[in-house]
Amino acid sequence: MQYLHKCKHYLSKDIKMWKNLALGSLILWLLTLGATGYFFINGSTDKSDDGRLSVSLKKDERNHILREMRQLLSGVQVILEALTTNDLKVVEKTASSLGMRSAADVNPALIAKLPLEFKSIGMSVHERFDEIAQNIHSGKMNKEQVLHEVSDIMLTCVGCHEAYRLDEVRE
């Protein structure tokens, strides 16, 4: 009988220890999830002296984003030039090249550093170019509609550049 009492005592201690361990693990997991969620939403940002939100990136990360922005701008120029001659095949091909496919190879560590709104704006621009390409291909979009849509995309770009700046952090 005394043996059963000792077993119950040790089992009670073991159960209490495992409950505490489980509770501690749960709390640690929730804190990690919260910190990851906060970082995913806010990215690596700070308020800059010019009123925009400064996104802190390593040199190669900053260069990657700036290169992508230059590709978008060059693509818009090609689209506008093609529209002057009503060459919708070139517009379709160029818009498709600026779509989501062009954003597929971005490093997840870089994505994590970008604030959620910045990511959303960037992805929406790529999606809209895909839509332009699809709508031209299916005959649902004419020259004037493309011009209107590209103008609207450019307003999105201007708004983003007014809200954010990319700053290089020294490693």
Describe this protein with a few key phrases.
single chain, 171 residues, 74% helix, mainly alpha
Written account of the structure:
This protein is mainly alpha-helical. It contains 6 helices and 3 strands; from the N terminus they run H-E-E-H-H-H-H-H-E. Strands 1-2-3 form a 3-stranded mixed sheet. Strand 1 (45-47) and strand 2 form a beta hairpin. Helix 2 runs antiparallel to helix 3, helix 3 (88-97) runs antiparallel to helix 5 and helix 5 (116-137) runs antiparallel to helix 6 (143-163).
Beta-strand residue fraction: 5-15%
How are strands sequenced across the largest beta sheet? 1-2-3
What shape does the CA trace take?
elongated
N-to-C terminal Cα separation, in Å?
Answer: 67 Å
- The residue ranges in which pLDDT falls below 50 over 5 or more consecutive positions are none
Helix content: over 70%
Major sheet attributes: 3 strands, mixed
Whole-number radius of gyration? 26 Å
Q: In oligomeric terms, what are we looking at? A: single chain
Secondary-structure element pattern, one letter each: HEEHHHHHE
Helical element count? 6
> Roughly what is the average pLDDT, rounded to an integer?
86
